[in-house]
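All the exercises in this workshop are built on plain-text protein records. Sequence and backbone structure share a record, each on its own labelled line. The question running through the whole workshop is how a given chain folds. The record below serves as our worked example for the rest of this section.
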Amino acid sequence: MSYADGRLIHDADSHLMEPADCLDPYFEKRLLDRFLALPRVKELRTGAKAEHVGERLALQQDAAFRAEADDNILLRKNYDAHGAWIRQDRPHTLDKLGFASQLVFTTHCLGNFGLDQSDDMELCYAAADAHNRMMTDFCSIDRRLLAVAYVPLEDFDRALATAKLALELGAKALMVPSLCPQHHSPSHVALDPVWAVAQEAGVPVVLHVGGEKKLNPMYKENGLPPVPDFHGGDDNFTSVSYMPIPEAAMQTLATLIFDGVFDRFPDLKWGAIELGANWVPGWMRAMDSAAHAFMRNEERLQKLSAKPSEIVRRQFRAAPYPHEDAGWIIRNAGEEIAMFSSDFPHVEGGRNPLKRFDETLQGLPDSAIKAFYSGNFIDMMGEGLAPDLRVPELQQSA
């Protein structure tokens, strides 16, 4: 029996644990040397981190280690997880998990190595295209694996070309950064062609943790010992660095709504993945308050098709963290928004996300629980999800 135990569950967040050289075969050859010279890329390929990754990947070839994979499907994490990188293993992993599909992101390539905020736009978009070729190639082994492509928003023409290429390659969702581009708003009308091709293809646009505003490092200078995070360091996921994670997403999404992007593309769905969702109810109310307070002087607010919170329920979906109270989020934001995610194979997803979510969903109507585990994901993914992966009654209501 699978982990899902026969329940219809779609996973809105899963990952590859890709090796540092994963993009090399997919990179435009004339730009590869320039890419390899990036400090972040060098860091991943040298020193203790690279040695550790090499050891863990080699372990995946060990017969005794592989023989125990099924019994440790949610216990082994990161590079030790079955199907984390070896392409041929991932379908079996999905069988053991029992999820109807998984939206698949990279790990180290999220945020495009900081190139979005650089001056080298040629390299920025070349890296994005290489990432998207790699992702669609990996996920092509099984239609249940839904590849997420990355589209930087810094250059209007290049963004459109990257989005088109990603869709041609078979991407099932387009990821854009939470951070505002350097020289224009994410709601700039010159980006409308990007949203148009996504809407026409019937695939969502998503934001994911990794491309947001980082914690001001001075908050760590408190005169106290370093605080260990989930991975034993002090540079990833701590209580203090956790707090600003959704800030850029809230601002970017609110701007897209207020400036009419959601209304100009009413069939385009948006998602916030691994950004948590505790913030969503208050954010919805804050946008309604802002619209009410400023509507008299802002024509853009007068033109909105509905209250911002209603537009959110119509077009936006979010994946709570397993440690969040998903039931509270649903009660305060509506049944249409929250989605299940495992964060497989990352440590942050925990060893039993279904148990943790089930506990918080107690007392909710069946319609809300079905929406959380499958219906809202089906609705968000649109044409990106094969018809035979949908359950008929949910397909009709999605």
User: Anything to note?
Assistant: The chain is about 45% helix and 10% strand. Strands lie at 10-15, 101-105, 145-150, 173-175, 205-208, 270-273, 316-318. Confidence is low (pLDDT under 50) at residues 392-398.
